[in-house]
Structures are given as C-alpha cells and as structure tokens.
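Let us work through a complete example step by step.
Step 1: write down the sequence.
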Amino acid sequence: MKRSPAAVASSLLLAVCGAAQAAPWIEPLPVGFYVTDLSYDGTAAAGNITGDGSYETFRWTAATSVVPLGQASVPAIGVGGGSPDISYDGTRVSASILSSDNNLTLGLWTEGQGWSEAFPPAPEFVLIQDQTYGSAWGLSGDGRMVTGYYITSNLSSKVQGCGWSPTDGLTDYASPRARVNAASYNGSVVAGWEDNAAVWHGSWSPTVWRDGTKYYLSDALGSTQVTSVNIDGSFAVGYGPDEFGGQQAATVWHWNGAGYDTQVVGYLPETVYTYGNAQFTSISDDGKIAVGNNRLAFNPNQGVKAIIWTAETGLVEGYDYLDSIGVTLPENFDLRDFQSISPDGSTIAAAGVNLDYFVFQTILIHLHDPCPADTNSDWQVDDSDFVVFANSYDVLDCTDPTMPLRCPADLNHDGLVDDTDFVMFAAAYDQLLCP
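Step 2: predict the structure and record it as tokens.
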C-alpha cells in the first residue's frame, strides 16, 4: 500500500513530536502532589504527597484523580526515602513503605491486590539500621521487579544494590556499595551508582549492569550516577562529570554493542561553575527526549530550572521550551523541574511550587494524545507498524519470549494479539497520522 507521510515541520514541538499533532495542553494535579514517574503513555502516574508532609505514595489517573496508597512511613517512624515508580501499564507502583513490623522497606503495589513487602521476613544477612531495611528507587517497565538497596551485614559499607520481586525474591548486584535506580522493561538491564573503591572510597560512579555484567560509565571523583534507562537499556541518563571533570553535567549514555558511549550534554549557561549542576531524570524509549533539572548554584534557593534535551535542539531551559510550543503555565506556578517524560514521549510531568500555598504541585504537559497503534513510536501508523503487528499476530501470546518488549500490538491489553486488536489496528492504519 502506498501512502504519503506527513510533512515534518521545523518548530521545536515537531522536533520533539515528529508528525504534526494537535496543540499541547496542560492538566494540573491537586496542590501538594509531586509526580515522580509516568506510565507508558502518561495516562497514569505515581509520586509522593508532599503537601501534608506525609510523603505517602499516590497513584493518579484521569478517571480516579489522585488516590493515596497507604503505608506511609514518615508519619509513623519519621523515616522515608526512595522514589515511587509506576509500570508501563499503570497497574503497579513501587515505593519505600512502612513494613508490617514498623520499618522502612521496599514495596510493590498491585491494582486490586494492594502492597507486597520485601522485608519482613528478612534473611539473616539483611539488617535493620535506623528503622530501615532498605528503600525502593526504581521499577521495571513490566512491573515485576523493584530496584533499590538493602542494609546488609555482608559488606562493611552495608548498602547492597538489589532488585526484588514478590515471586523471585532478591537479586544482588555485586558491589562494595551501590544503589540501583532504574531498570529496563524486563529488568535485564539495571543502572544506578556504585562506590568505585578502586578510584576513591565514597566516589559514586554511574554504573549499568547488563545481564549481570557491570559497566562503569565514569571513573571521576565525586557523586555521579545513572537515574533512568529506556525500554531495553540502550539509553541511560543521569549526570556525570563535565569535560574538565569539575562539575556534574546532564549526560546521556548510549549502548554501542560493546559498551556505552558518553554524551555530556552539559548545563545552562547561568550555572555557577563548581557550585551548580544539571541532571537528567528521565528519557523516552526512543532515546530522543531527556528531561530533568538544573541547579544554578550550591544553594537551591538561588535557582532551580527545568531542562529538556533533544538531538535536534540541544539543551533547552523549561520556560523557553514551553514558550516554543505555545504552552503557558498558571501565573501562580513556579516551574522547577521536568521530573519525568512518559516512555512514548507524549507527556511531561512538570514539577514546581504553587505560590498560593508554597507547596509542590505537578502539572502534566500533554504534547499529544496517546497513539497505541504506533508500535515504533514515530507518530504515524504506517507500513512499518503493520510489519510489527503482523509478526506479533503470528506469535499471539504476549508472554512468548519472541514477542517484542511490552507487546505493543496488544492494543486492548488482554495479553494476546488477536482479531480484536486487528480491528483496532486497521482503523488506526486507515487514519495514518496519530491524533
């Protein structure tokens, strides 16, 4: 079948989104709710309740708004940590929670089931320190494995980077001291930081573990780390040393088949050298968009700005980016951070301070509507998507290991690629362009 692709415009929005889309729009969450992660298409989110000081984990959808998930540790024991994350399909949330014996532990919330906890019971090598077993910092895209660390007697530094699932238990990532911040869709690639004692004890090196093999991404002194990876771990982002090794700079790492190539993106021009820093906290699955924040000086009260990067535009300050796509935030909202971008690149979680209440708030910036039939994320449904669909249709079962990651052709999310999905795909294929 022969069809003409949509023309690609030259504006920043089209550099980010690809084919022409409807105008971006914003969706404010209630005041006091801070989103830390988005589902695949941005239709669900997870984060912390900051407005009441509880830091309780919540889940948001457009249908339910914000729903507190319970098990907040701060009100009970005064201890918290980690970062809530959400699965691609929005049905699972990971977080550090109050355990059944009143300590901080890694937890996994499943829709319709509630929380599961990593500890207790705890193996004899897992310790409790300052009312903490450990904390959760990441979640695989399929929602099966929580990542983070636990306190252990097996290491002198006592911090063991790990993955955990209710079905498979603990997976340790050999280290003198480490934390696992992120995982690929199926958990085969994880990343974070490791104390590289060969360089200097107390030096955090950005580290990736691919199928158990460890890759140091930088040996510079100081605190650097990977904060996020994409669907298959081919892209990782976070912060590393700049070209002079004296400042933390927003960084993208790309797998080349044998190791990771480093792209130091940098920081905003007004950043005070050696006192400020920039970091990416999230990247789209295609590796084309990364978002984060830039602290201009040592004291965050001296300025924190949202940042976004694409290969076409380079590093752009948050307000400049929003101006370029015609989005205006409310006057009472002081933008500080682009905390997350949905894996499909359709939605950004913008964090800032609501100046009426002086507490954090999140505003979702929808660059365009989700496009489920676009299996290769180029924002049109064409012959390349048909090939993916046809191959998936032949496989049928989403659990089959030969099925592409996240089973993108399963449009009705029932675990199968069958005739029902074909009807939905055919209708989208006729339209060509995503909404």
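Step 3: interpret the result. Residues 1-20 have pLDDT under 50 and may be disordered.
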